[in-house]
Amino acid sequence: MRHHVEILDAKTREKLCFLDKVEPHATIAEIKNLFTKTHPQWYPARQSLRLDPKGKSLKDEDVLQKLPVGTTATLYFRDLGAQISWVTVFLTEYAGPLFIYLLFYFRVPFIYGHKYDFTSSRHTVVHLACICHSFHYVKRLLETLFVHRFSHGTMPLRNIFKNCTYYWGFAAWMAYYINHPLYTPPTYGAQQVKLALAIFVICQLGNFSIHMALRDLRPAGSKTRKIPYPTKNPFTWLFLLVSCPNYTYEVGSWIGFAIMTQCLPVALFSLVGFTQMTIWAKGKHRSYLKEFRDYPPLRMPIIPFLL
Amino acid sequence: MGRLTEAAEAGSGAQAAHWAGPPPTLLPLSPTSPGCAATMASSDEDGTNGGASEAGEDREAPGKRRRLGLLATTWLTFYNITMTAGWLVLAIAMVRFYMEKGTHRGLYKSIQKTLKFFQTFALLEIIHCLIGIVPTSVLVTGVQVSSRIFMVWLITHSIKPIQNEESVVLFLVAWTVTEITRYSFYTFSLLDHLPYFIKWARYNFFIILYPVGVAGELLTIYAALPYVKKTGMFSIRLPNKYNVSFDYYYFLLITMTSYIPLFPQLYFHMLRQRRKVLHGEVIVEKDD
């Protein structure tokens, strides 16, 4: 029996669209596509449809006849604003630091005094730092293209400005000091650099291992969620103790980089990143607990036993 | 976020008392408070009561909440009365000084201890939000109080040559009138006896006080610049062990420019709040 669907504005309750003869097994995604036909400026990614004006958004996969509606369904619409794909955002926000750091490394004119233009640092650690920083962002770009499987296709457009300011700004700030002609190498010399480099490399491998493990949890094109478990790869054994070891390893990498360069701006960047990742980890941990009754109780969100 | 609830609160003082806490901070501490506009503007979109749910807990059982409320209400009433009195004392001291001496020179020096005491004491307001007895965002309050602490401790206290500038008196007057109005507004709301003229004052004085305060603060920072540049105060130079540098002079320049985008946002937000509270206008907030 065919349904009718009316779509009202969630704020003004104005009737925006009436769809008649909608198949009962139609999904929200299909309804969004129909809605776009009458309002082309609201492409599906920026539509939020809900049963209650103040309620939660319906999922694209939800089927019309499975919802608590009569033959005429009333859906409320909220405009999520211009959207941009996650892939685009990631690529932009990671390509920036890669490029910007190199500008400072090669001492491009107008950054330091003219007598330093295109000169090179005499400290080994400065060259090492450039390799590490560049490797890190190349890894991120490649992971975005080939490894990650995103739950959501898009995010609000304003995020790209916010995110790029954060990544690009900090990259410039760190790079300025590390590549400065007056840079002071670490107090404990080669020992400190070697130890820090080891931490950095281990954490990069760890982070990559987790990304691969998470990818293998989810088949291509699907949005399924499963509890991640340790695999044969020792780096994934951190799953025994934390829900988001990728964040743990990421913080570790930056701490390593901070110790290696002995640069306060790097430490501050690590701290800010840690704060943000802790918020994300706690959220993810909470979702896991809500969704899975048998979630391992030993696990903490980001720091084993502590946080 | 506190704003929308505040608007409803301010409508009847009775509601405020039942809430066991003063209405959230509507007028920011400094009529200027550059940093807070952006955070306030963004917290605006979330119309829910953010402060009280800071702890992430559900509301306690009504009986228990009222008992907590009594202690909180008592403390907050005491706090707001004290702050009203403090700023009144400041106002009177300033007037007396000018009447006796006929000049503003030396005025700051004569009131500086009292100013520092009461303005610093306002840090408690962050705690109030943190523990949830005031339903305002910790971030918003933090930014507001920080901007005042910045002016008092990092500008007027630290840069002695500018203490006799006229601009200092300008923002002191703006702050004093604002705070007396604000704290008495909270006090009367808590006591469930809000005279209309206090509410009127709170939602109208800012129209003049904001620009006056901003002008005073900006002119003061501007006057301090040459001295900061000459002495290199609060600055760290390269090379150093931690490979960092900080130039207070450029920091002040950036602070001053940040007033440009932030002040209008804040000002227009206040105007919208005013229309809502005093004239009962229904304003549909813009979408994200």
UniProtKB/TrEMBL annotation, chain A:
InterPro entries: 3-oxo-5_a-steroid_4-DH_C, SRD5A/TECR, TECR-like_N, Ubiquitin-like_domsf
Function: Involved in both the production of very long-chain fatty acids for sphingolipid synthesis and the degradation of the sphingosine moiety in sphingolipids through the sphingosine 1-phosphate metabolic pathway. Catalyzes the last of the four reactions of the long-chain fatty acids elongation cycle. This endoplasmic reticulum-bound enzymatic process, allows the addition of 2 carbons to the chain of long- and very long-chain fatty acids/VLCFAs per cycle.
PANTHER family assigned to the protein according to its UniProt record, in alphabetical order: 3-OXO-5-ALPHA-STEROID 4-DEHYDROGENASE, VERY-LONG-CHAIN ENOYL-COA REDUCTASE
Family: Belongs to the steroid 5-alpha reductase family.
Top EC class, one word: oxidoreductase
Residues in coiled coil: none
PROSITE patterns the record matches: S5A_REDUCTASE
A Pfam match: Steroid_dh
Gene Ontology CC entries for this record: endoplasmic reticulum membrane
Tagged with keyword Transmembrane helix: yes
UniProt name for this protein: Very-long-chain enoyl-CoA reductase
Record-annotated 3-oxo-5-alpha-steroid 4-dehydrogenase C-terminal domain positions: 154-307
Domain of life: Eukaryota
Record's keyword terms, sorted: Acetylation, Endoplasmic reticulum, Fatty acid biosynthesis, Fatty acid metabolism, Lipid biosynthesis, Lipid metabolism, Membrane, NADP, Oxidoreductase, Phosphoprotein, Sphingolipid metabolism, Transmembrane, Transmembrane helix
Catalytic activity: (2E)-hexadecenoyl-CoA + NADPH + H(+) = hexadecanoyl-CoA + NADP(+); a very-long-chain 2,3-saturated fatty acyl-CoA + NADP(+) = a very-long-chain (2E)-enoyl-CoA + NADPH + H(+); (2E,7Z,10Z,13Z,16Z,19Z)-docosahexaenoyl-CoA + NADPH + H(+) = (7Z,10Z,13Z,16Z,19Z)-docosapentaenoyl-CoA + NADP(+); (2E,8Z,11Z,14Z)-eicosatetraenoyl-CoA + NADPH + H(+) = (8Z,11Z,14Z)-eicosatrienoyl-CoA + NADP(+)
EC number: 1.3.1.93
Localization, UniProt: Endoplasmic reticulum membrane
CDD domains from the UniProt entry: Ubl_TECR
GO biological process: sphingolipid metabolic process; very long-chain fatty acid biosynthetic process
The protein's annotated pathway: Sphingolipid metabolism; Lipid metabolism; fatty acid biosynthesis; Lipid metabolism; sphingolipid metabolism
From TrEMBL, chain B:
InterPro entries on file: Tyr_Pase-like_PTPLA
Membrane topology label: Multi-pass membrane protein
Record's GO cellular component terms: endoplasmic reticulum membrane
Enzyme class (EC, first level): lyase
UniProt keywords, alphabetically: Endoplasmic reticulum, Fatty acid biosynthesis, Fatty acid metabolism, Lipid biosynthesis, Lipid metabolism, Lyase, Membrane, Transmembrane, Transmembrane helix
Cellular location(s): Endoplasmic reticulum membrane; Membrane
Primary location recorded for the protein, binned into one broad class: endoplasmic reticulum
Keyword Membrane attached: yes
Segments crossing the lipid bilayer: 78-99, 120-143, 203-228, 248-268
Reactions this protein catalyses: (3R)-hydroxyhexadecanoyl-CoA = (2E)-hexadecenoyl-CoA + H2O; a very-long-chain (3R)-3-hydroxyacyl-CoA = a very-long-chain (2E)-enoyl-CoA + H2O
Entry similarity comment: Belongs to the very long-chain fatty acids dehydratase HACD family.
Protein name: Very-long-chain (3R)-3-hydroxyacyl-CoA dehydratase
